[in-house]
Write a structure and sequence with these properties.
Number of helices of chain B: 6
Order of helices and strands of chain B: EEHEEEHHHEEHH
CATH superfamily of the largest domain in chain A: Glutaredoxin
Strand order of the largest sheet of chain A: 2-1-3-4
CATH class of the largest domain in chain A: Alpha Beta
Largest sheet of chain B: 5 strands, mixed
CATH topology of the largest domain in chain A: Glutaredoxin
CATH architecture of the largest domain in chain A: 3-Layer(aba) Sandwich
Structural class of chain B: alpha+beta
Radius of gyration of chain A: 18 Å
Helix content of chain B: 10-25%
Structural class of chain A: alpha+beta
Oligomer: heterodimer
Helix content of chain A: 40-55%
Order of helices and strands of chain A: HHHHEHHEEEH
Strand content of chain B: 5-15%
Distance between the termini of chain A: 22 Å
CATH class of one domain in chain B: Alpha Beta
Amino acid sequence: MDIQELKVKSFVTKYNKEKKALISILQNIQEEYNYLPQEALRIVSETLNIPLINIIGVATFYRAFSLEPRGKHLVTVCMGTACHVRGGPKILEEFERKLNIQAGETTKDKQFSLEIVACLGCCAIGPVVVVDGDYYAQTTIRKVGSILKKYMKIKKKNESN
Amino acid sequence: MISLKMNRLDVKVEDGWTILEAAKFYGLEIPTLCYNEGLSPYGGCRLCLVEVGEGPRAKLVSSCTYPVEEGLVVRTDTRRVIEARKMMIELMLSLAPNSKVIQDLASKFGVKQVRFKIRNEECILCGLCVRMCSEQMDGRAIGFQNRGYKRKISTPFDIRSEECRLCGGCMYICPACQLRCQGPQADTAVCNACLNMDPTCLDHYDDLQCWMYDAGRCGTCIRESPEKSAEKEQTSK
């Protein structure tokens, strides 16, 4: 994927080149490319006048950022204590089998990334699965297929358009 | 000037000093590892822990980052401090068992075994190299990355940084990789061959380091023999 220098710079100028807006800028880049490309980080470093290593420090600290290319849809399975005892690991296993990847990896067609999260703070509706910001409560192994189908359908729709 | 108590001693120090600086000024020994006079304090190694406050509200703080306050009560050699210090040395040894600096500390403070899994990471994340690079060398080539157990020090994208001028400052200051101990590499044992073999006696004393107001008999360096303490009991009766 090409990194458009102008696009990255527009993210930076959007926040008046303020250093404190670093995380917001990184979020915009992450949204645009689904990951933080090296070149983009270098451009941010130059325009914001922040040492590159400090930007890397921020980018690697937060789980929301990824330095590796991620899939279009991000599937996060909760492995917090409550979700864990209610069968979180089994649901994760099912996702791993269905998508044919391990947790933390991305499918070959760059459609899905699978992540584990320690706790989402909504233990009452566990086991929780979050796909692209949509929460799926009380998930079971049976529901895994239908959840994935939803996002595969979106993909097909987009293709037909 | 700020007056405070250090090891039951009333002292006066300059405003803006840290506890560590005050202790150094008055000759109280506090071990340090991630502290360096030329660099900003970091408080990462937790070796310079001291007890602040009195009674049940006493807490352990890192003296290199704690500024002195009026009326502060500081104790540098309580049992709690010593235990915490030994634990820190043990933990650091499990990370970097080949470091001579840490082995010397272990020897000095009587750490004789490591109960943790030896991880051989040869880095204790003290941040000395990072601060050396940015503060003294104006380099900013290395820094902390990731977090939790994945935390590491590296260059951006793990390739040679354009900022690096190969000054070697990071290597010079590193306590884990410099002058590695050449002794036998046992799995868990601390070889202790680099310094003396005598255990220090600090852990036998509960409260304070007496700081010479009873010259020669202060008790920090002489372990009280059982006979002597029995004698004392008799005379008190």
